[in-house]
Specification:
Structural class: mainly alpha
Shape: globular
Number of helices: 10
Number of domains: 3
Number of strands: 2
Strand order of the largest sheet: 1-2
Radius of gyration: 23 Å
Order of helices and strands: HHEEHHHHHHHH
Length: 247
């Protein structure tokens, strides 16, 4: 967190810091500091107004004004995308303080009609709580969690059907009956030369497609796209310029 909370421009610095880290959130990249800052903004009610670095008192009508306001807030253009990304990053958050979860819960309680998160997010949270309360060893809970994560990453709409009194009584039942368990086949080892040609890459793609079911193909494609975007950003030396003129 930022130092010197007695600084008269502390709140303005919080806003500037949140804006600096917002691009990472919109790109679904981990930025735990963003959620820590947003919790501080909520706690200090900065979303209702603050003094900017020029000493001007900025008045805001509330959290929605703060999120949408280009000059004095975060300037978010696509709220559903922002909320979906927050939910995605919260599920990947392994920190103990759970700043992302606290921010999401606050938004939901503040205005549940405006801040609508993907239903699969709440279903995933429901099922992870059920896993944490399961009897048995840690290995069993981890197996359940791995199966749940795969279902959520490929077909999140299935989650609502898992649980006592629902279509699938348990996560393993859903995992099996939805076709995630495929009998192993005897196949040759895939090989690729050090400097593969386009034809070799195409042949590899066809072979992988034939070996993986539809669900695992989706996982593979999503992961390759994610890795490609990260490498592209690194190669292009993407730099975010947080500076913005103040009134």
């Amino acid at each position: 967190m930022l130092k010197d909370k007695n600084d008269e421009f502390y709140d303005a610095r919080l806003v500037a810091t949140a804006k600096l880290h917002l691009p990472a959130i919109m790109n679904r990249q981990k930025s735990p500091f963003f959620f820590e800052v947003m919790n501080e903004i909520v706690e200090r009610k900065v979303y209702k107004g603050y003094k900017n670095v020029k000493g001007r008192e900025i008045k805001l009508s509330g959290i929605k004004d703060f999120l949408f306001n280009v000059r004095h807030g975060l300037g978010i253009r696509n709220l559903p995308e922002f909320l979906g990304n927050c939910a995605h990053l919260e599920l990947a958050d392994k920190s103990k303080r759970k700043y992302a979860r606290r921010f999401i819960d606050w938004l939901k309680n503040e205005d549940p009609k405006s801040f609508v998160f993907p239903p699969s997010y709440w279903e995933f949270r429901r099922l992870t709580i059920a896993i944490s309360e399961m009897k048995g060893g840690e290995d069993r809970r981890m197996r359940y969690y791995d199966m749940l994560s795969i279902i959520h990453n490929t077909h999140p709409e299935i989650l609502i059907h898992i649980g006592p009194g629902r279509k699938y009584q348990s996560i393993p039942e859903a995992y099996k009956k939805e076709g995630y368990i495929v009998e192993a086949k005897s196949v040759k080892t895939l090989r690729l030369s050090h400097a593969p040609t386009y034809k070799e890459v195409e042949a590899l793609a066809r072979e992988l497609n034939s070996r993986l079911d539809k669900l695992k193909n989706r996982v593979l494609i999503a992961k390759l796209i994610e890795i490609y975007k990260i490498n592209e950003a690194v190669e292009n030396h993407v730099i975010i310029d947080p500076s913005e003129d103040e009134d």
